[in-house]
Amino acid sequence: MLLWYIPNQVQPGHRGDEVRADHNSLDTLTEQAKALEVYGWGGALLGTGFGRPDTFTVATALATRTTTFRPLIATRPGYWRPANFAAAAAALDHLSGGRVLVNIVSGKDNLAAYGDSEGDQAHRYGRTREFMHLVRRLWTAEDVTFHGEHFWVDHSTVVPRPLIKQPRLYFGGASPAAERVAALEADVQLFWGEPLDGVAERIDRLKKLSADLGREHAPLEFGLRVTTFVRDTSAEAWAEAEARVAAMQTDPNQHTSVGQQRLLDLTARGDVLDENLYTAPGRFGGAGAGTTWLVGSPAEVARALKRYQALGITHFVLSDTPYLNEIKRQGEQLLPLLTAS
Question: How confident is the model at residue 167 (pLDDT cuts 50, 70, 90)?
């Protein structure tokens, strides 16, 4: 699965994107979604967080204006209750011809702004696991009664059913608590752009953890969410990547998650790892998937991604800015190298 990223931001200029007044209008977002279809992408992860346009509403609007575009809808337990979300996602999946993908997010958010709260890490991930477990049951069973520590339903049946048995559940997180949730309930564990040895170690650990915990679902799959900085030649890519980093403002990451801290710690190993994994952006405020970049020519970046694929990565969520321009550039230059037999 080859996906892109649509940031879904109120303010323009996200990570160096083009600054335009209509950057998040339906027409602009539709232009991106349709370009993804034209250039061979499977769909896009849609950013979420209170203070952004509602992600599910945006996904629904884009689904009505496209034919093959698959929205990977980021959502948070607490922002939705499980039965409400299961019903909404099932309806959209049914109406869109089975195109819904779901990314469950447990990271920090402005919880109080929408009347939510949570306790410590154990509470947060306990709630996340319960949310995923109950949503799965509501998509696949009828007359569901469930009384958990965080959520409950009595005699609940979701109609219409998802077109396929259930939308895929993507998940991220690097802490031990997060990895237990992934091993038990996720379909796809997403990693950020770590070096190959770190990704290999995490895949091995999650496979063993799945077996040790008695995972009841199909085997866990793995994905990579990373910035891909592609130019015609290696020299051009590195010159532009270094210039972009030089222009970044130092903005120390606050309240970093375990996964974010893993990326920031990579700078101690060097600015460039595994030939073309660029760690320097993290020193200047790069966060999330923008903390590390895969830099190079199309052939070099494709070769790097195929090394991750050889480790067991089967889902990729790529991006760079300007978003629309890079949808086209990487769709023309990178994707054919990844899909060639």
Answer: very high
